[in-house]
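Extended Data, panel c. Modelled sequence:
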Amino acid sequence: MEKSVPLSGWFTGIMDDKLQDLPDGSIARLVRQNFHLKYVIPEAILRLSKNPITGNHYEGELINSINAIDNDFWESNLNLCKELKELLEKIETKEINLPQDFEWCMEEEEQDFYENVRNVISILKCLCHLEEYMDNRIEEIIQLLDAVATEIIVPLRRKVINEAAFSELFKLMDELQSLLYNEKNVEKEIVALLFLIYTQIDTQAKYVTEDEKKIFMTYLRKMRVGIREIFGKALENE
């Protein structure tokens, strides 16, 4: 049986096979081992949509294997998280039927299957809410950046550094770096506001004394690093 094969030998044996050609048990095992989930989960979703009880060793093995997926994967792939959650909800409400020729041997088996489906849905719901939180928080940060930009730029035009406002700006930039770490796109408002502040510092630094310029350049360098961290990650994710 497949489960008696050592992990290294099993994995070597399937490396040259296409995902769609692998047996259900191998897909479930890849999921349990958290191997190449970005490619395996779409295949798992496809198979579950056709047969919710798919598996090799027992009915529902593939769904059960989802419990082994690290939360970090879902947090980095919220679209897949949402897609799988919606599919499982259809299975749980029986909008997606089991194979016509299938019957549960025992009522307890059926109860256990749907209980497991509900448990996985519950986990995915919590993780999918993270996406909603991120969207809301980013909108809040845009509003805060807008206010901070005014507090920074108005004094800058008088060649004055508002240290408190810059301190708040760098805190917001640190949070953005964390929130946008796995995002491919950055809100245009964020780009516009950060570059507006950056260009104002750069411009005003040309009209101050050498001693003042050292202070201006310190803030300019810190902004440059922060902007690179925020936008650089987005470019890497494209």
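The chain has ten helices and no strands. This feature is highlighted in the accompanying rendering.
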